[in-house]
Design goal:
By secondary structure, the protein is α+β, with helices and mostly antiparallel strands. Helices cover about 25% and strands about 25% of the residues. It has one domain (about 1-65). A hairpin with a 5-residue loop joins strand 2 and strand 3 (about 60-65).
Length: about 70
């Protein structure tokens, strides 16, 4: 059975930069203007995403894996 797995982006420099931005933004996605519970990293949009791909800021990636 296949399922979506959440992994960190494999670009360690990008991960470091994004994590610094999230920290500076009080834990909220740096790509979002509004600070709401839905935009707290890991944002609601990404958690609900049902396909492969990156989150808005590129920190996390969803990939299909075999169980």
């Amino acid at each position: 059975m296949r399922k979506l797995k959440i992994i960190l982006n494999n670009d360690s420099t990008m991960v470091e930069i994004i994590r610094e931005q999230i920290k500076a933004n009080d834990g909220y996605c740096p790509c979002r203007l509004n600070k709401t519970p839905d935009t707290k990293c890991m944002c609601k949009d990404f958690r609900k995403q049902s396909s492969e791909g990156e989150c808005h800021c590129g920190l996390y990636v969803k990939v299909w894996v075999d169980d």
